[in-house]
Give the backbone structure.
Amino acid sequence: MPINEADHRLNAQVSKTLAVGLAISIGFMAAGMLLGLAQPGRLSHQATALPNLITNTLTGDPTAFLSWGIIVLLATPALRVVILIIGYVRQRDWIFT
């Protein structure tokens, strides 16, 4: 079955979403590792709690940056599903929706 233009655009959007999500996640994790190396003793063995995540990120806590990286990495496939659902609804492809 040939891929039509709408399917091609949807596949491109999904691909771009996955790549950008991975890049952002790697960026957060790299920043966390660099901050951890620059500030010995500040890198914790436990993830930052969600209520403290923004505050700790703004103070430069390396563990907060690593936690953001993991959150973005876990959220990226879920965002892919949302994009696919929106795309299928726009195409009125009710079988996959």
